Amino acid sequence: MAERGLLDTSAVIDLLEVDTSLLPTTLAISAITLAELSAGPVAAASSDESARRQDRLQRVEAAFETVPFDSAAARAYGRIYAAVVASGRKPRRRLADLQIAATALALDVPLVTRNPKDFAGLDGLVEVIAV
Predict the structure, then answer these.
(1) N or C: which terminus of the chain has fewer CB atoms within 10 Å of its end residue's CB?
(2) If DSSP states are collapsed to H, E and C, what string results for 91-113?
C-alpha cells in the first residue's frame, strides 16, 4: 500500500465505511474537497442534516492536512483536462473532481475515492485507489 494518499470528497464522506487496510498510511485532503464539504451544511435540506454536515466538516479539518490547489496543481490540471478530453469525456462537468485529481498528480500521490468512474481516463497520470 502507498505511504501517502489524497482523499477525494466521496472517500471523506464515507470514511467510516471504508476498509482501512486499503488506505495509504498518511492521508490528506485537497482544498477543493474542503470547499465541497464547506458547502454541505448550507445545502442541507434540514437543520439536523446541516448540523451533521457541519460536524463532519469540523472533524475532517481537525484530522487531515489540507493541501492547497496551488500553481503546481493548476499546471497538472492541464494534463488532467487533456487526458479526459482524449478519453471522450467532458471535463467541465467534473471540475472539482479533476482539480482534486490534479492536486494528487502534482503531489505524486494516489487518489483515494469511492467513485473511481469519476476519474476514468486518467490512467498513467494518477493512481486511483477505489475503496
Answers:
(1) N
(2) HHHHHHHHHHHHHHHHHCCCEEE
**What cell does 48 get?**
439536523
Would you call 14 helix, strand, or coil by DSSP?
coil
**pLDDT exceeds 70 at position 37:** yes
Which phi-psi region, left, alpha or beta, contains residue 100 (left: φ > 0; alpha: ψ -120 to 50)?
Answer: alpha
Q: Which residues have C-beta within 8 Å of that of residue 62, sequence separation ≥ 6?
A: none
pLDDT tens-digit series, residues 71-82: 999 999 999 999
Closest-CA residue to 80 (of 62, 92, 64, 65): 92
